[in-house]
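Researcher: Please generate the 3D structure of the following complex. Treat every line as part of one assembly.
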Amino acid sequence: MGKTIAEKIFDAHRVNEPFPDTHVLKLDRVFCHEITTPIAITDLMARGMDRVFDPTKIKAVIDHVTPAKDSKTAEQGKILRDWAKRNEIKDFFDIGRNGVCHAIFPEKGFVRPGYTVIMGDSHTCTHGAFGAFAAGVGTTDLEVGILKGVCAFHFPKTIKFELSGALKPGVYAKDLILFIIKELTVNGATNMVIEFTGPVVDAMSMESRMTLCNMAIEAGGTCGVCYPDMTTVEYLWKFIQDEFDTKEDALKEYSKWVSDDDAEYEKIYRYDVSTLEPMVTFGYKPDQVKTVDEMSGTKIDQIYIGSCTNGRIEDLRIAASILKGKKISDDVRAIVSPATPAIYSMALKEGLIEIFQDAGFCVTNPTCGACLGMSNGVLAHGEACASTTNRNFNGRMGKGGTVHLMSPATAAATAIEGKITNSELFKA
Amino acid sequence: MKKFSGKVLFLDRSDINTDEIIPAKYLTEITKEALKPYLLEDLTLEDFTHEDINDKAVIVTRENFGCGSSREHAPWAFEVNGIYVVIAESFARIFRQNMYNCGMFAIELPKEKIDYLFDNYAGKDTTIEVDGDNNKIIVTTSDKSEAIDFSVGEFDKTLVKEGGWVGYADKNY
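Model: Done. Output below.
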């Protein structure tokens, strides 16, 4: 019997199996941000164990509330900053050089096929887009990861999506993952890895693959995974070119992190997605999904384009292509938050920021901020937000507010009309 | 093994997420104790009031409890309110692991048993004791008491015995 990619990564990283179905894995990366790490740091200090297993494998960023909005968030940043300095963690991204963790860490080339990655953040599943096993964990797992470089997991049962056909114009990775979550429901993949495969995924950029994997957790999944291919190699090439003579060599090496044809799956889903429509959520669970046309006309108060799901350059390009030469509705306000400084710079050079501003968008610095109702775009009671983020929980973006999850294209069209709108309306 | 017991709070809904258990705006706190007043502040559940939490030590609930964010602030918010046990039909992976990592119990029971608990004990003054050594919970009201078996992995049980993952990992890795 063959193995899935997750099984192969487990086999290559297993330290031991201290109890049945308890696999302690060696970690290649421990990512940290200022919300879930400070309590791990203060606990390690209290235990007299203020040290790290390997400062080169730990990467840290201030991203959730940045720049600090009050004394408490300033203190969280300070704890992380001081700790990184004390423990010689070179890859610490402070204010001005910081971006949303699941956008900036891949952008810096920190994730490679076959890696094990943990972070005290549920959307760590994003990094599976590189053919890695990447899982969100709590602060205690993070603390042990920082101290010992290990984490315990149960066996990674896997479900596979084989996605064939081609997405229609106006339909993106975000629409596809919303459709998949609707099919799986919010706990359909609990304790499982989700593999995204097939010609549709093969044709996707790394950005789109990250969008897919990012929302695996919304179906309960431990990690989303895409197989590494030449697209992965091209994305990583500037970081790995000293390790390999040619891109083909890199691809050959990374190809060992692909599931075997006879691997065992919990379930295989096969879809031809050629007729898939743009999708949007309603209600308070990410599996409550309808087509944009079904929800068309729903009144919106705020538009938000950004986050670890859809704040990358490709997302900004798509949104700007719809907004170019247009104004947002007088009935809404709109916010765009490029997910990293590099994305912000690219958007500036390409003239995208000007398009957003001319349309009436507020352009903020890179931060998680509004997505979880912490800063930079919190909703008032009774308001609705059209958002490119990943969670529509009750009150997520502000107490009493509603969130409709959608693609950047749909969000841009919605900004122009002031109500949920299919972006195809604005195509020539 | 330490015995956990106390009054039961029944939360009759599936998919209660960690934003409902502790809203993100309180994640700026850097002590666990500071989370105490905000437990379940955004819970969407008919007839639930915050006072219902008072003097409770055990939660009984439905499917997919603790879904969403990885925030360990959720188990901590229970812990500082004296709630060390959640019994549910199923849990989200991260929340479940966080409970055991903190040395607390996240007990899964089959749907029939959860239905039975709701049908027979919700709305009554009910106490549950967890006997971790024998994999039983003992459910008690003024007029009866009964034991219900549950299963728990050796790793999770060890974490409860050792008081959490940090101590265990420090000794063994």
